[in-house]
Amino acid sequence: MASITSGFIRLPALGKRKMAQLAAMARSHGVTPEDYAKQLVEDGLAIQREAEAASFADIMAPVRSTPGKVDDAEIVALVDQARRGSSRTSLSSKRR
After folding, report:
1. I need a labelling partner for 37 at 20 to 30 A (CA). Which of 14, 21, 24, 79 fits?
2. Domain-by-domain residue ranges, the chain?
């Protein structure tokens, strides 16, 4: 594994459509595309750390604490809710 010696990395080029999406999302958050991309990486790393730190018991606690029988649809809804909570970024705090 190569070590990073600076604060910069070079990424493979994105296609025009993906670059347009990135620019549009950055504008909607009031930041530059570069800052938006940086925040996406930072958020992804934070989510990964949280996932690695959480035990299966932690993940399943809301399901186990639900009274009565929990069906598949309710489990899917809980998972979706947890994913939405984990995917919140700090970009909204940077809006101008």
Report:
1. 79
2. 14-53, 55-87
